[in-house]
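Quick review question:
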């Protein structure tokens, strides 16, 4: 049985949804094999996207072997007007969200911790730059068309 699922819920909901699906399958008394077709709409530079994906991976592990997933990555540019040379990440975040440098640092620490909670380390790169991701999305499109996209 195939189902199309679009992931639009916060990352914290994936494990809860996986548990609910597992309970539903056991209520009917028979194991069922289901393949979910998942479209993940993501920007490759979005930290919350990788956090949500890692939470999804854990949820899918909990459902094995009765539920499997076919994952297709879909593009979404968070900052389509970003110039090719990019922008300092702290400058970008403080301008975009109207927050202080201290708030930006606090948010970054919270994101790093949430990443660790789901088994992903963002590393200790310090500041850095954010870039336009259009070419990265073109690469993902090519990978899908040549069946090299992974999950």
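Suggested answer, residue by residue:
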């Amino acid at each position: 049985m195939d189902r199309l699922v679009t992931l639009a819920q916060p990352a914290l909901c994936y494990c809860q949804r996986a548990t609910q699906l597992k309970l539903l399958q056991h209520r009917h008394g028979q194991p069922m094999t289901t393949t979910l077709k998942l479209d993940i709409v993501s920007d490759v530079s979005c930290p919350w996207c990788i956090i949500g994906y890692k939470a999804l991976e854990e949820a899918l592990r909990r459902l094995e072997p009765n539920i499997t997933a076919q994952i297709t990555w879909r593009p979404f540019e968070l900052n389509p007007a970003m110039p090719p040379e990019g922008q300092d990440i702290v400058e970008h975040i403080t301008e975009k969200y109207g927050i202080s440098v201290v708030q930006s640092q606090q948010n970054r620490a919270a994101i790093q911790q949430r990443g660790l909670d789901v088994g992903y380390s963002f590393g200790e790169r310090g500041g850095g730059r954010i870039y336009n991701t259009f070419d990265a999305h073109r690469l993902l499109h090519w990978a899908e068309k040549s069946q090299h996209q992974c999950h």
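Why it works: The first helix runs from residue 13 to 27. The domain at 2-145 is CATH 3.40.30.10 (Glutaredoxin).
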